[in-house]
């Protein structure tokens, strides 16, 4: 499609998978470099990029390994381009070295993790067991990635573009944390035309472009001189504090009149929403907090409600710890979690809520 | 009177951290001489490795990126694909290019990335204190081969240039040395060719440079050069490989 | 007559220039430099031919050659 025609069709409806929505959003958001390596359940994303990147002014590379893919992203980002890679849990583990370097060199980048079961090779069923890895700095060093967790295919699309924006704004790597269910699910979405900066127009004075009419730029994360690294790390920390102040995102349901608040993100929140709806129909005062940004964790959402919480995850309790920190002993917290292929069902959630409700 | 040998413009006028007689200083200078002669200082982007040359960007006065250990060619691939109009080179040691980064090296070469690679082979890990490198010679003593490298236990010196020459994506590979003024002139010529190849869009070019590490060879600077000339070139013969 | 200029404070005393000077006119300095090592100097009265081999082999870019 030529650009003029696309300009006219600025709102288009598409029926696509979560993986494809992420890919399409990235291209719309001006992603000009993508490198990936095959791993289930995110292969549709890589395939979409292979089909579309070149035609739409970008670069697609099937890398020889996850380590290479993330370091290609490092190079592309150092050269000033919006760049992305994607993978699933075991592959994301391999990328951690590169993510640490991206954080250390303050390079914007988007990393998509369509989570599957672990540890080890695990299985290809959806899971949420990489929450710690994503939110606690999965590689070495004191750093954070911005982590956004879509819950619908539309959100896969919307949050990917937002991830590029925020990543550029703060010069931090941003992670889209989804799972195999969301990645492979098809839903209709509304495609909005983003206004992405072109490579030449992007305001990245630090980027490597050749030192014409300016001093040489260096992209690095090495600070050998005494005191320099500490100074740099303090700069990172103040940036992280700003992100924590300004970038908390969440959705809430029925919090005005509530006895039990469910907390779930991503695919899990879809099932939790179903349970909330069913329980409300039975007159149960149940609400929901759905964290959209996992780092920064939306602590503010928990500040006003001192009720009973029920954290539900496709893991054995990772986000649970953030809820505990946010609630800080001021309310009761129960947990329901499965992982390794098991997904807490609506019936399980309802049973658990009823137990707490009447217990 | 004319200055016939001057400090290259692209080389900052600072002292390096390298040991006396180390080949890195020489290789750094030769690269900047070639960059100046080709007039590409404002277009060039260097990728520094992890190893002794990690802070090469403190010495080169043009745009540079650091890369994680072994990943220089992945980083360079990202840069070059985004900015094909720039001249991108990597500068990598033997551990970086031929051990931890072998995968990145082979696949960047196999994709025929239009990049120039300067590969410093000094048969030892310098920065970490003289451990065995993939290119350490048989019987060569290092801190991790105290009795000398033994083929049965540690395998053979890895001839990665010869391996890479088998790949159709590779357009030019030459092995040169820094052990004498004559060889230094040849090294500079090879470097220039590798960069010109990129400027002309010819493709993946690699110059392997046998380089002295007097400190971890346990030799004075001049005997270190003699060791390259008399011993190292027998395992790593000089000349155009492809 | 050709001559060389040696940046003595940058010199690390590897003496590779000494080993390649065909005339043997590069020798050790008597005084220590700011690094605390004896750098090289051009032998007083020596006749430089301007071959530039010393500059070519110097790993620290300490030598400039005039001709």
Structure description:
The complex is a heterotrimer of chains A (359), B (242) and C (67). Chain A is of the alpha/beta class and 359 residues long. Chain A has 13 helices and 15 strands. Chain A folds into two domains: 3-210 and 235-244, Rossmann fold, CATH 3.40.50; 251-358, Rossmann fold (3-Layer(aba) Sandwich). In chain A, the strands form three sheets. Chain A has a seven-stranded mixed sheet, sandwiched between helices. A five-stranded mixed sheet of chain A has the order 10-12-11-14-15, sandwiched between helices. Chain A is globular, with a radius of gyration of 21 Å. Chain A starts with a helix and ends with a helix. With 242 residues, chain B is an alpha/beta fold. Chain B has one domain (23-240): Rossmann fold, CATH 3.40.50.970. In chain B, strand 8, helix 7 and strand 9 form a beta-alpha-beta unit. In chain B, the strands form two sheets. Chain B has a seven-stranded mixed sheet with strand order 3-2-4-5-9-8-10, with helices on both faces. In chain B, strands 6-7 form a two-stranded antiparallel sheet. Helices cover 38% and strands 19% of the residues of chain B. Chain C is of the alpha+beta class and 67 residues long. Chain C has helices spanning 16-20, 53-57, and strands at 3-6, 26-28, 40-42, 63-66. In chain C, the strands form two sheets. A two-stranded antiparallel sheet of chain C has the order 1-4. Chain C has a two-stranded antiparallel sheet with strand order 2-3. Classes of the chains: A alpha/beta (359), B alpha/beta (242), C alpha+beta (67). Chains in contact: A-B, B-C. The A-B interface holds A 32-33, 35, 59, 61, 63-65, 67-69, 71-81, 83, 97-98, 101, 105, 199, 208-213, 216-222, 224 and B 41-45, 47-48, 54-55, 57, 60-68, 71, 74-83, 86, 103-104, 106-107, 111. Strand 1 of chain B pairs antiparallel with strand 4 (63-66) of chain C, so a sheet runs across the interface.
